[in-house]
Design goal:
Arc Repressor Mutant, subunit A, mainly alpha
């Protein structure tokens, strides 16, 4: 639930309030769109379309939920629209994607190269986790990525996945158990007191 002051600021289209809500929410919206399976460009489009709808419908915000929860609900609709339209661009050159992933706007490394042994160990861990994650059913995987990787709050995850908090708890429990079983089968062991 939003404070009455913030709700009034949103409904009254106060520029400072709207700017604050958008600045707080946009990075999380982008991560949630990516976690929902959209490519980077489509995720940005969905997040920006979400903000646009939020701005257009600001007067309708009643404050019964947090603004971020309302934004996640809008985002869920935009993700569904993007999937239906499947507007993924086709002619993107792979070298452009590699360059954008490795260098920042000034041409410096985003992440400097690592040593060979460290790189191999990381790659083995990534492959193992990715392989285990592939065995997790789609809804459980999406819940796990949104909640544990992107750290989206429970209410927003429930809205995105259209589930109750109890159902989300079940999805997360099952996904974590599957991941743990898969990793342990592959020889990875956690501490004895680790929780599922």
């Amino acid at each position: 639930m939003e404070s009455p002051e913030r709700t009034a600021g949103i409904r009254g289209r106060d520029p400072a309030t709207l700017d604050q809500v958008i600045r707080e929410s946009l990075p999380r919206l982008l991560r949630a769109a990516r976690a929902a399976g959209l490519p980077a460009e489509q995720a940005e489009d969905a997040a920006h379309a979400t903000v646009l709808v939020f701005l257009q419908r600001a007067e309708a915000f009643d404050g019964r939920a947090r603004a971020s929860t309302w934004l996640y609900g809008i985002l869920a609709n935009k993700v569904a629209e993007a999937r239906r339209a499947d507007t993924r661009e086709q002619g993107v050159d792979d070298i452009d994607e590699v360059f954008e992933a490795r260098f920042d706007a000034s041409g410096s490394w985003s992440r400097p190269p690592v040593g060979v042994l460290e790189s191999l160990a990381r790659e083995d861990a990534r492959r193992l986790i990715a392989a285990c994650l592939e065995d997790v059913p789609e809804r459980q995987r999406r819940a796990l990525v949104l909640r544990d990787v992107d750290e989206v709050d429970t209410a927003a995850v429930c809205k995105i996945l259209a589930v109750s908090p109890n159902n989300l708890g079940v999805l997360l429990f099952r996904a974590r158990v599957r991941m743990r079983e898969c990793l342990e089968t592959s020889g990875v062991r956690g501490s004895a007191d680790a929780q599922v």
